[in-house]
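Comment thread on ticket #2218

A.B. wrote:
> Attaching the input chain for the structure job we discussed in standup.
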Amino acid sequence: MNAFNRRDFLKGCCVSALAAGPGSRARAWFAPPSLLPATATEDTLVVVFLRGAMDGLSLLPPGASSPYRADYEASRTDTRVPLSGTGAALALANSTWALHPRASGLHALYQAGHAAFVVAAGQVQPNPVVRSHFEAQSNLEFGVGGGGGSGIGWMTRHLVSGGLPANVPLPAVSMGSITANSLLGSSDAITMNSGSDFRLDTFHWSWQDDDAASGRIGAVSRMNALWNSSATQLERAGMEALDSLALLRPIDFGLYDATNNPDGYQPTGGANYTLANNGGFGTQLRNVAQMIKLNLGLRAVTIDLGNWDTHVGQGNPTQSYDWFGNQVESLSQGLSAFYTDLSTAASGNLMNRVSVIVVSEFGRRVLENSDGGTDHGYGNVITVLGGAVNGAQVYGTFPGLGSGELFEGNDVAVTTDYRQVISEALIRRMGNPNIYYAFPGYSGYAPLGIFQGSDLPPTGFDQIFRNGFEAA
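C.D. wrote:
> Ran it. Output below, let me know if you need it in another format.
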């Protein structure tokens, strides 16, 4: 593959430009290199969003020796994860917490020291905002502590301030049909539902080529000439989208098959993504692993796994049909395959420079409802994994499940701001100290010790403001 200069490649795409809308301020202003941190690393941050509000007390229920077990059992019958017999929870080393039995892949990563959990984590702004999926998801992804701010995502502000090298061809990817809010405003992110879809193979790439013999000018040449003559935002985005297609065109994102697709991608270490193909989740993780192995410069990735809104028939692991368990298995198997694939790469253990953070907009209520489900709650569990994670630990301060310890008498309270977890990853793994720029309104950085790496004095990236760059 030819060497690519970042200037020649995608700094946005049509999807992002159209999502921003006409007249939008959603543009990423990049500071001169002299103002960017010299500490920036080549690590990749992957954020998995469990949309619909995952029930943290079912993913990570209190274990046998937990002081919260009695209150948990008093609040749950139909959704309870048992400690013995059929569907028994998996005990965790160094913890009084346990793990849902269908999270065997996550359990193995935790026991090996590659994964950890943060309890009572979430957004610090009060209800009723956290009762709404739309509002809570928006708040979390814009990262401003409430509301949408200027419509620019926290991950975009990280890319702006994080010292992105000038020769990175593909800095950020939003895996899905629409751009994640956390990457809104980025002129460096592309959006794809899958790598194969983005290649536009169904259009046969002959449409791109010129034919000198017949004098035919290909469609791409025509569009290049048209868009090169214009300076509007939409036309620039069109050019950049074509550039990204040119970058991804040579990559076969299909799965290797000796007979039908010998040029396809072959995961290493026996990683099996097909066990996680809930809405394409496994395929998207596989595509990301492939792009990381190709060293395209990925620094930020978002992936969604939806369908966690379990108001009715949530199920439990003792039942033949366990809705929540099916979701957990997809998540666990996908993340396990991703870790296995990258940690056994021919070029070495790539998980040593990849960090995964799994979040959800809020948790579920402690007391289950009469329909065998759980309603919208507050505090939740954040899952982290990576080669540089101080794993086999459960972090955070749990406030308890007693009636006097619950938020508004119903929910797990939030004692750890989700921005505290992400900020630690930005500083220690990404080498970006400008966390108060990434998360306006957040202050008082205090690492929990989840990630390995050096702490840097956190800043608000004031240099950009003083030099006339736009503040998100």
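A.B. wrote:
> Thanks. Noting for the ticket: The first helix runs from residue 14 to 20.
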